[in-house]
Amino acid sequence: MMRRTLSIxxxxxxxxxxxxxxxxxxxxxxxxxxRVVDVITENDAKLILNLTGDQELIERNRARGVSFPxxxxxxxxxxxxxxxxxxxxxxxxxxxxxxxxxxxxTVDRDGKAFAMRAPLTDFVDGSINALVRPNxxxxxxxxxxxxxxxxVTTMLPQFLENLFxxxxxxxxxxxxxxxxxxxxxxxxxxVPGFQPIRFAVDAKYTLQRIANGIAQFSLNFTYTxxxxxxxxxxxASGSGTGAMEYDVRSNLMRNTTSTTSxxxxxxxxxxxxxxxxxxxxxxxxxxxxx
Length: 290
Hints:
Residues 1-21 form the signal peptide. With 290 residues, the protein is mainly β.
């Protein structure tokens, strides 16, 4: 009788354990001292742009080889490495960002190639030296190599903030399977012949499952207009979906993919510009050394 009772209790315990176990993860995206990480980002973007109304502006663009409606297909690939030294006595540590490669290839609807530089071309063969404070703040120190103009160099502190700051709101966040984390970031969309328009991106990361030490998230994005030059009237809508894999053991975001689309109409004086964009981005991070 005792043996039978014990067997029943063990069976009930085995059934109850999976139900009561809570799977969760605490996220960390901040650089870690003594760690070297490679980051490869690939973008594939298609853009249809049309401009009507202002014939003078249309002619100026035509003289530059841009006729409307204008279709472009751009593929970009950037490779950078972050090298974090061991921590100092006060808890701060030096961080070195090396730009190893930046490629960009753009063609029009007829397959004609455009000579467009990748956004990080000027940084290639150069390195940014920074200091990570104990509170996580990253301060620009110096620039080695590269071919940056002085006016671009002055923007490096903001570049660092954009590079690491977008994930700052999620640092240390604890999420259970089925739970979500909200994040807000910003980006500037260039508008040919006009000032850029700033968009806010509201992202939701939902933890789907944890398997073999990998936390798998689904992503949803919504784009809203944040800042518009006073000379413009803008209507825009955009959204996207994606996925993220987070290595729980090494506290490292491994792979992220996203697909987004956006439609926009800009009314600026006599000009009306419409655009329809679709973009797919893949970011892969890997540990070179721990």
